[in-house]
C-alpha cells in the first residue's frame, strides 16, 4: 500500500531523529505500562476483597436495629422541651416479626436471587476447662449453603447433618484448634441467655479469614432458637442475595419500602474498607496520568523543535500547494506514530508484568497475588495513550499550519 505524501514526509522526519523519537515513545511506554500494571493490581485486590467479604456477609441484611429510648411524654407546646435524663439504647427484642411473609415479598422482587433466614447467637464454646467466645449462625442448610457455599470451605466432615440433626454443629478451624476438637467430638455451647447444649462436631471449615475461623459456627436454626429461648417462627436476620451486588445500595432502598426493619447493604456496612479501595483506585490513574503528561510534553517539545528547524521546508511545501490541513496532518502523524509505538510497547510490557505478578505466591490466606487484567483496561489504556499523543502533536502542528511562506522567504 502506497502511503500518502503527508505520511511519507512524517516518516522521513521521524527516521532522521531516531534517538529523540525513541525517548519520546519510551515516555508513553512507561506511562501505559504503569497504567495497565497498577490498575490491574487495584482490580485484583478489589475483587479479592469482595470475594473474601462475601464468604460470610450477605449482599443485603435485614435486622432489627437498636434504638435510643424516647421521652415518655412529649410536649404539645413548641416553647416546652421534654427532658430525658441519660437516654439509652432500648433493651428490646432483636427478632423480626412476620419474617416468612416478609421473605416471600422480598423474594418476589425481580432483582432478588435468594432470601435466607438466620438466627444469630452469641455463645461460649467449651471443651473441658477451655472455652472460646464465638457467634453461631442458625441456618437452613440448603439456603445458607447456596448463598455462601459452606460445603466448599469444609476441611473435614459435612454440613448436611445440620439439616436433620439438632445436636450437630460445624465449627471454624481456629475453634477446633483452640479447643482441640476433631470430627464427632462433643462440645458444650452456652448462649447469652444462659442455655447450655452438648453438640456433636460434624464439620470443620476454613474460610482463610482468621477472625471467622476463630469464632464462627453453624447449627440448625431450631437449635439456635432454643439457645435464645425463642419459638420456631422467630428469627434475627434475613440475608438477601441480589443479582448485581454492585447495585446493592439501590436495591436496599427498594426493599426498605417493604419493611420497618433496618435494611443494610454490604457497601454501607463496609464503608471504611471501600473508601480505602476507592482512594487507591483514584490515586493510581492519577500517577499514570502524570507520567503520561510528562511523556506528552516530550512529544510536544520534539514536534515543536522540528517545526522550528523545518520552517523553510514548511514554507516550500505551502508554496507548492500544501494547505494548512496538510501541514497539520504531517506533524500530528509524527506524534501519532510515536504515540502508537509507545502505546503498543506499554501494553506489551504491562501485560508481561501482570503475568509475572500473577505467578507470585505470597502465602495463605491470599495464595497467589490478586491481580486481574481486564480487556477494558487494555482498550482504555490504548485510547488514553493515543489521545495524549495526538493532543501533544496537535498544538505545535497548528502553529506550523499558520506559517506564511512569503514571510519566511523574505528573511
Low-confidence stretches: none
The main pleated sheet reads as:
6 strands, mixed, barrel
- Total number of helices: 15
Rounded mean pLDDT is 84
Strand order in the sheet with the most strands: 2-3-8-5-7-6
**Distance between the first and last residues' Cα:** 40 Å
Helical residues, percent: 40-55%
**Could you spell the SSE succession in H and E letters?**
HHEHEEHEHEHEEHEHEHEHHHHHH
How many β-strands, per DSSP? 10
Overall structural class, as computed from helix and strand content, comes to: alpha+beta
Percent of residues in beta strands: 15-25%
What best-fitting shape do the alpha-carbon axes yield?
elongated
Could you walk me through the main structural features you see in this protein, from its secondary elements to its overall organization?
Keywords: Cell membrane, Membrane, Transmembrane, Transmembrane helix. The protein is of the alpha+beta class and 411 residues long. The chain is 52% helix and 17% strand. Strands 2-3-8-5-7-6 form a 6-stranded mixed barrel, surrounded by 4 helices. Strand 2 and strand 3 form a beta hairpin.
Features:
transmembrane helix, alpha+beta, cell membrane, MacB_PCD, 10 strands
How is the secondary structure organized here?
Layout: H1 5-15, H2 18-53, E1 60-63, H3 99-107, E2 112-127, E3 130-139, H4 141-148, E4 154-157, H5 161-164, E5 168-172, H6 173-179, E6 186-191, E7 196-205, H7 210-213, E8 216-220, H8 221-227, E9 237-242, H9 248-256, E10 262-265, H10 266-269, H11 271-309, H12 311-319, H13 324-358, H14 375-401, H15 405-410
Parallel strand pairs: 3-8, 5-7
Antiparallel strand pairs: 1-9, 1-10, 2-3, 2-6, 2-9, 4-7, 5-8, 6-7
Amino acid at each position: 500500500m502506497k502511503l500518502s505524501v503527508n505520511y511519507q514526509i512524517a516518516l522521513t522526519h521521524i527516521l532522521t531523529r531516531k534517538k529523540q523519537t525513541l525517548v519520546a515513545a519510551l515516555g508513553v511506554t512507561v506511562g501505559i505500562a504503569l497504567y495497565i500494571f497498577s490498575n490491574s493490581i487495584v482490580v485484583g485486590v478489589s475483587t479479592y476483597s469482595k470475594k473474601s467479604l462475601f464468604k460470610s456477609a450477605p449482599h443485603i441484611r435485614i435486622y432489627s436495629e437498636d434504638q435510643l429510648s424516647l421521652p415518655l411524654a412529649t410536649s404539645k407546646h413548641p416553647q416546652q422541651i421534654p427532658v430525658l435524663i441519660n437516654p439509652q439504647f432500648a433493651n428490646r427484642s432483636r427478632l423480626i416479626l412476620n419474617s416468612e411473609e416478609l421473605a416471600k415479598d422480598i423474594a418476589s422482587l425481580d432483582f432478588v436471587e435468594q432470601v435466607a433466614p438466620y438466627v444469630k447467637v452469641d455463645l461460649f464454646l467449651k471443651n473441658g476447662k477451655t472455652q472460646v467466645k464465638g457467634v453461631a449462625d442458625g441456618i437452613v442448610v440448603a439456603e445458607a449453603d447456596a448463598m455462601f457455599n459452606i460445603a466448599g470451605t469444609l476441611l473435614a466432615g459435612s454440613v448436611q447433618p445440620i439439616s436433620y440433626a439438632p445436636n450437630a454443629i460445624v465449627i471454624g478451624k481456629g475453634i477446633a484448634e483452640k479447643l482441640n476438637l476433631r470430627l464427632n467430638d462433643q462440645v458444650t455451647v452456652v448462649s447469652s441467655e444462659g442455655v447450655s447444649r452438648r453438640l456433636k462436631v460434624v464439620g470443620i471449615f476454613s474460610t482463610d479469614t482468621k477472625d471467622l475461623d476463630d469464632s464462627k459456627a453453624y447449627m440448625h436454626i431450631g437449635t439456635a432458637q432454643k439457645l435464645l429461648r425463642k419459638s420456631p417462627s422467630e428469627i434475627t436476620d434475613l440475608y438477601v442475595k441480589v443479582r448485581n451486588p454492585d447495585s446493592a445500595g439501590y436495591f436496599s432502598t427498594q426493599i426498605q419500602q417493604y419493611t420497618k426493619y433496618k435494611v443494610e447493604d454490604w457497601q454501607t456496612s463496609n464503608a471504611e474498607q471501600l473508601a480505602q479501595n476507592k482512594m487507591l483506585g483514584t490515586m493510581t490513574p492519577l500517577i499514570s496520568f502524570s507520567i503520561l503528561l510528562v511523556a506528552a510534553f516530550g512529544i510536544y517539545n520534539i514536534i515543536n523543535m522540528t517545526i522550528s528547524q523545518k520552517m523553510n521546508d514548511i514554507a516550500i511545501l505551502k508554496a507548492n500547494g500544501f494547505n494548512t490541513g496538510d501541514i497539520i496532518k504531517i506533524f500530528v502523524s509524527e506524534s501519532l506514530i510515536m504515540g502508537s509505538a509507545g502505546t503498543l510497547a506499554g501494553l506489551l510490557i504491562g501485560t508481561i508484568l501482570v503475568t509475572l505478578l500473577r505467578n507470585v505466591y505470597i502465602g495463605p490466606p491470599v495464595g497467589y497475588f490478586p491481580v486481574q487484567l481486564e480487556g477494558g483496561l487494555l482498550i482504555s489504556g490504548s485510547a488514553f495513550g493515543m489521545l495524549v499523543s495526538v493532543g501533544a502533536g496537535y498544538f505545535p502542528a497548528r502553529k506550523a499550519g499558520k506559517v506564511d511562506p512569503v514571510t519566511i522567504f523574505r528573511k
